C-alpha cells in the first residue's frame, strides 16, 4: 500500500474514531501489521511518481553514505587494531643477533604507522559524520532529508571510503609481506621470500578487481542516467502533445461558439 492510500485510511479512521483527551499515542494507523506507514516508525513506501523526485534521490544518497560510513568505521577499527597488535607483539632481536636488513625494519615501521594513520583518519571521519546522518535517517521521513549533511560532506565520505577500502587494504597486504620478512628472515630466507612471491599475484588480483568494480559501477551509473534522461525526454514530448491537443480542442470549441 502506498503512502497516499495509507494516509487516506488513517484520515478516515481518525474521523470515524476521534482520539480521546487522555490518549497520547502518535500512531494513527489502525493496523500497523498490514502495511507500513510513516507514523509507524518504518521506512515509508513511495509511489512511482515520488521515486523520481529530487528529495527521493537525496534520500537514496543518504542511505548509501550511511552504509559507506558504517562499513568504513568497522573495517578501519578492525584493521588498525590488528596493526597495533602486530607492532606490539612482534619480537625483534638485537642488531648484532639478527640478519634482517635495516631497510626492512624501516619499511615495517613506516608501513605500520601509515596503516594505523590511514585507518584512524577514516575512522575519525566516519565517527564525526555518521551520527548526523543517522539522526535524519532514523526518522524515516524524506521531507527532512535536506537537514542531513551527506551532500555537503560528500567528498569527506568518499575519502573515508577510499582510505578504508582501497588504500587501507593495500597497506595491510604490504604489512603482511614485510612482517613475514622481519619474522622469518633469521630462520629461513626462503620463507621470507615465499611470502612476497605469494603476495604479488594476490595484489594483482586485488587491484584488478578494484579497477573492474569501479569501472562496472561507473558504467551502471551512466546507463541509469541515460535511461533517466530518455524518460524525461519522453515525458516532455507527452506534455507537449497534451498541450497541443488541449489548444486544438479550445480552438474548436471557440469556433463552434462563434458559429452558434
Secondary structure layout:
Layout: H1 3-16, H2 54-89, H3 102-137, H4 154-184, H5 189-259
Notes on the protein architecture:
The protein is mainly alpha-helical. It has one domain (54-140, 149-245): Butyryl-CoA Dehydrogenase, subunit A, domain 3, CATH 1.20.140. Helices cover 72% and strands 0% of the residues. The two termini are 50 Å apart. It is found in: Membrane. This is Calcium release-activated calcium channel protein 1. The chain crosses the membrane at residues 104-130, 159-185, 191-214.
Could you state the CATH homologous superfamily? Calcium release-activated calcium channel protein Orai
Distance between the amino and carboxyl termini: 50 Å
Oligomer: single chain
Which regions contain 5 or more consecutive residues with pLDDT less than 50? 1-45
Category from helices, strands and their pairing:
mainly alpha
- At CATH level 2, the architecture is Up-down Bundle
Q: What is the CATH C level class, in words?
A: Mainly Alpha
Number of domain units: 1
The helix/strand series, from N terminus to C terminus, equals HHHHH
- Share of helical residues: over 70%
Q: What is the general shape? A: elongated
Q: Give the radius of gyration.
A: 30 Å
Strand content: under 5%
Mean pLDDT over the full residue set:
75
Main sheet?
none
Distinct helical segment count? 5
Task: Give the number of DSSP strands.
Answer: 0
Family: Belongs to the Orai family.
Transmembrane segments: 104-130, 159-185, 191-214
GO biological process, one term: store-operated calcium entry
Main location: membrane
Amino acid at each position: 500500500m502506498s503512502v497516499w492510500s495509507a494516509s487516506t485510511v488513517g484520515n478516515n479512521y481518525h474521523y470515524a474514531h476521534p482520539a480521546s483527551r487522555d490518549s497520547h499515542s502518535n500512531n494513527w494507523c489502525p493496523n500497523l501489521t498490514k502495511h507500513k506507514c510513516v507514523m509507524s516508525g518504518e521506512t515509508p513506501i513511495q509511489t512511482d511518481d515520488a521515486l523520481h523526485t529530487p528529495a527521493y534521490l537525496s534520500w537514496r544518497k543518504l542511505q548509501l553514505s550511511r552504509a559507506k560510513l558504517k562499513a568504513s568505521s568497522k573495517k578501519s577499527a578492525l584493521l588498525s587494531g590488528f596493526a597495533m597488535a602486530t607492532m606490539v607483539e612482534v619480537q625483534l632481536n638485537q642488531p648484532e643477533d639478527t640478519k634482517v636488513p635495516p631497510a626492512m625494519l624501516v619499511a615495517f615501521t613506516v608501513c605500520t604507522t601509515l596503516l594505523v594513520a590511514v585507518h584512524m583518519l577514516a575512522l575519525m571521519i566516519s565517527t564525526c559524520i555518521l551520527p548526523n546522518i543517522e539522526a535524519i535517517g532514523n526518522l524515516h521521513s524524506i521531507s527532512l532529508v535536506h537537514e542531513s549533511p551527506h551532500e555537503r560532506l560528500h567528498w569527506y565520505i568518499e575519502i573515508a571510503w577510499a582510505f578504508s577500502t582501497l588504500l587501507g587494504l593495500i597497506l595491510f597486504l604490504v604489512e603482511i609481506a614485510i612482517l613475514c620478512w622481519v619474522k622469518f628472515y633469521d630462520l629461513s630466507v626462503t620463507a621470507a621470500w615465499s611470502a612476497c612471491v605469494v603476495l604479488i599475484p594476490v595484489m594483482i588480483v586485488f587491484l584488478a578487481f578494484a579497477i573492474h568494480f569501479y569501472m562496472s559501477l561507473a558504467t551502471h551509473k551512466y546507463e541509469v542516467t541515460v535511461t533517466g534522461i530518455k524518460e524525461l525526454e519522453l515525458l516532455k514530448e507527452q506534455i507537449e502533445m497534451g498541450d497541443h491537443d488541449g489548444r486544438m480542442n479550445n480552438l474548436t470549441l471557440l469556433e463552434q461558439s462563434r458559429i452558434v
